TrEMBL record:
Species this protein is from: Gadus morhua
Leader sequence residues: 1-24
Gene that encodes it: WNT11
Highest taxon of the lineage: Eukaryota
A GO CC annotation given for this chain: extracellular space
An example Gene Ontology biological process: canonical Wnt signaling pathway
SMART domains: WNT1
Name recorded for this polypeptide: Protein Wnt
Locations listed in the record: Secreted, Extracellular space, Extracellular matrix
């Protein structure tokens, strides 16, 4: 007897297609996961887009971790776009639709833009997990360890440190999984993405700072309770942006018994552990070019008085710009009333804006 064929629902088919072509940062498609979907059953892992088989396995064995990873995907998209809002490349291509099977070429071609996104993604997932341990959102981890060194007089260790150790372990397991598959693209791309992901995690390690809370009579702060905590992700992203601007172009060359990435122009030294690397040059992102992954800067807002990358001269690539006016409504003439509320009036003002031709 002939078996009846069964048509898969579109959503399931999309997930299967994504899982077949996924590599690297496709897990960022998790940012489109509906807020109403609570990952509390293994079957929910099949409804999540962008994961390779080993990531799906991690999902099934660590269900409660997935909400945190979904949150990390959203943080990557938001932070990347905010960090590059003043640049020609503004990370708009990271917002891949949930039903798409691939990212834009600017993130797939081994450019310095993909280097930044891989580094930020690796940092963000470990950052979000470490913070989730601290907030009690994950039952499998708790606060980070108390430092071994003796604090200065007037200081004492306490509070709840961000669990960076657990964040790095689980974050790297998930974010590096696609690059460790046999069908994950060229060996050069694998090496590049793994290297840049580790640069992101190193930036996270460097972002550990001492945070303190004051105690004492009338706020005298005679004693400070302190713990080790992570800087905000936006600060880490700015550090990685600096590394992006000074990234090193590399080539894949035999070094001893195997091929490695070495600087293209200064290959007398190995690649440094804290520098972002890229294999292919980027376009100038001035004009729309789908093949290169450039959306162009037409209709982008620019700053007429700036001397930086958001200036109308640089943003508009010499094409010129058009002015327009915008009405802003703001709170003004605020007064404090005893006790205890504030009243404000609404004021309108006209501001002049500029967009690229």
């Amino acid at each position: 007897m002939r078996k009846a064929s069964r048509t898969l629902p579109l959503g399931v088919l999309t997930v299967l297609l994504l899982s077949q072509v996924c590599s690297g940062i496709k897990w960022l498609a998790l940012s489109h996961t509906p807020a109403s979907l609570h990952i509390n059953q293994t079957l929910h892992c099949k409804q999540l887009a962008g994961m390779v088989s080993s990531q799906a396995q991690l999902c099934r064995s660590n269900l409660e971790l997935m909400q945190t990873i979904i949150q990390a995907a959203r943080e990557v998209k938001k932070t990347c776009q905010k960090t590059f809002a003043d640049m020609r490349w503004n990370c708009s291509s990271i917002d891949i639709p949930a039903d798409s099977t691939k990212y834009s070429p600017d993130l797939e071609r081994g450019t310095r833009e993909s280097a930044f996104v891989y580094a930020l993604s690796a940092a963000a997932i470990s950052h979000t997990i470490a913070r989730a341990c601290t907030s009690g959102d994950l039952r499998l981890c708790s606060c980070g360890p108390i430092p071994g060194e003796i604090p200065e007089p007037g200081y004492r260790w306490g509070g709840c440190a961000d669990n960076l150790h657990y964040g790095l372990i689980m974050g790297s397991k998930f974010s590096d999984a696609p690059m460790k598959m046999k069908k994950a693209g060229s060996h050069a791309n694998k090496l590049m993405h793994l290297h840049n992901s580790e640069v992101g995690r190193q930036a996270l390690r460097d972002a550990v700072v001492m945070k303190c809370k004051c105690h004492g009579v009338s706020g005298s702060c005679s004693i400070r309770t302190c713990w080790r905590g992570l800087q905000d992700l936006r600060d880490i992203a700015m550090d990685l942006k600096t590394k992006y601007l000074s990234a090193t172009k590399v080539v894949h060359r035999p070094m001893g018994t195997r091929k490695q990435l070495v600087p293209k122009d200064i290959d007398i030294r190995p690649v440094r552990e804290n520098e972002l690397v890229y294999l292919q040059s980027s376009p100038d992102f001035c004009a729309k070019n789908d093949k290169m992954g450039s959306v162009g800067t037409q209709d982008r807002q620019c700053n007429k008085t700036s001397m930086g990358s958001d200036s109308c001269e640089l943003m508009c690539c010499g094409r010129g710009y058009n002015p327009y006016t915008e009405k802003l409504v703001e709170r003004c003439h605020c007064k404090y009333h005893w006790c205890c509320y504030v009243t404000c009036k609404k004021c309108e003002r006209i501001v002049e804006r500029y967009i690229c031709k």
